[in-house]
Amino acid sequence: HEFGHALGLRHSDFTDDLMFGIVPVPAYVSVHHIGTLVSMYENLITPSNSGIKT
Q1: Is residue 19 within 8 Å of residue 12, measured between CB atoms?
Q2: In terms of CB atoms within 10 Å, which end of the chain has fewer, N or C?
């Protein structure tokens, strides 16, 4: 949950999400989290600036 905050995620309204205000057990990364992270970071790393050789 705190790692999600460190990445820039806010609390979720979905009760089964890891980023819900009260962390459910078991907690997991949902498709909502993945979609949010992809949209936040998709333009930051490209093959040309990542240092990864393809």
Answers
A1: yes
A2: C
Who contacts 21 (Cβ-Cβ below 8 Å, separation ≥6)?
11
| Cα–Cα distance measured from residue 48 to residue 14, given in angstroms and rounded to the nearest whole number | 36
Q: For residue 32, what are the domain limits?
A: 2-41
- pLDDT at residue 11, as a whole number: 92
Within 10 A of 42 (CB to CB), how many other CB atoms are there? 9
Question: How many angstroms separate the CA atoms of 25 and 50, rounded?
Answer: 35
Total structural domains within the chain: 1
Domain-located, residue 51: no
Examine the pLDDT at 51 and tell me if it is beyond 70. no
Tell me whether residue 48 is in a domain: no
